[in-house]
Amino acid sequence: MAAPTTAAPKSSASGAPRKQNDTFNQKDKPTQVRLSNITAAKAVADAIRTSLGPRGMDKMIETGKKEVVISNDGATILKHMSVLHPAARMLVDLSAAQDVEA
Q: Which residues contact 51 (CB under 8 A, 6 or more apart)?
């Protein structure tokens, strides 16, 4: 019975072994990114959820300039929030785009 052999690292034309990119070899990376996007979208939705509907409540927001804004408009609330996550930022930009009057 033959002994199992291990494959030698592939080498480039110069003879030096090629370094494999770990990002492409990680199978769970796309899942982590997807879950991060879903979590960010849920956080944005939760921030304005209670201001929607006939029983919607007003939100009090303190801006960076220490001004206080009270509103129950979702676009205004999102405009005054500082959102860093790219997917959440896209949702905020989308709400601003829909709020523009034609």
A: 57, 58, 59, 71, 72, 73, 74, 77
